Amino acid sequence: MLRSRSRALLVKTLALRLPLNHTLVQSFPQISSLSNSLRLQLGIHKGFKRIVTSELGKSSSVMADRVENLKLLTAVNDHHGGVVVELKAPMDAAAFVQSLRASIAYWRQQGKKGVWIKLPIELANLVQPTVEEGFWYHHAEPSYLMLVYWIPATPHTLPVNASHRVGVGGFVVNSKKEVLVVQEKTGMLQGSGIWKFPTGVVDQGEDIFAGAMREVKEETGIDTEFVEVLAFRQSHMSFFEKSDLFFVCMLRPLSFDIQKQESEIEAAQWMPIEEYAAQPLVQKLDLLKYIVDVGLSKLEKDYAGFAPFCVNSAFSNDQDYLYLNIRDLKQSSRSGIVSNNH
């Protein structure tokens, strides 16, 4: 009895001191004889067991005969104490679950927190077993699904999926004080006869000013130069469960001949701003009335919007832009911080 207790104590001591390896013991007598409570203390459950070295009287070569190699999932550390797994090669679901369980045990011992698994669409067969292991959906893209898991027994601090969609509208005015307007072929205003400013959604990785110029070009064929962000709006989109950020951008036309190129646009034209503002829908909605007011104020030089300035960023090697009121900044004592303009 004393020898048995001593052996169990030695096993426990070694198991707590030894790091979890990529190789897990399938079975051997010393561990098989342990009580269930001690197995749980050692983290020996769900069919996985720790390696015990030759200090138990077994040489490494003999022990290897009783060891089943379970390859851990390849992962890279993120910046917040978690890991990211990007699966690429096909895997059998049963083998994947074994590797996933072993990996989570390993990451738990390392003190990792969040686990991100990126499943390409070709490995959709692994979605169900991953969810059954406690993962949940985070977001989906055309080519992959991202699932997440929180290891600690605490409320998770994983960031939610992208919470906003970014839209832009082009307030394009020519020297005749005419605004560029379009009628929609599809959407809420289809067939209503209402004229609106060219609008759209910023593409992934696209800057606000670039998105505004692109949308105007796609819908009307007019080339423009970005001037300023005049205002922006935030609203809730219940269908997409996101918030909508919409930036009203003033653009200066570089060409004037309209060449409608967008299949969603029924018609496009230049219209006196007073005629646009007189439309019943514009008169009804405060949002549209304020856009007209701020646009006119800008034309009269009374209103300063936000212009993009290149800035260095810790988050990306690409160009980043800070939108600010350059007119008032230049009048302040801190104007020296501005070094370049778009």
From TrEMBL:
Keywords: Hydrolase, Metal-binding. The keyword Glycoprotein does not apply. It comes from the Eukaryota. Coiled coil: none annotated. Transmembrane segments: none annotated. Residues 163-295 form the Nudix hydrolase domain. InterPro entries: NUDIX_hydrolase-like_dom_sf, Nudix_hydrolase6-like, NUDIX_hydrolase_CS, NUDIX_hydrolase_dom, Pre-Nudix. PANTHER family: NUDIX HYDROLASE 2, NUDIX HYDROLASE RELATED. Belongs to the Nudix hydrolase family. This is Nudix hydrolase domain-containing protein. It comes from Asparagus officinalis.
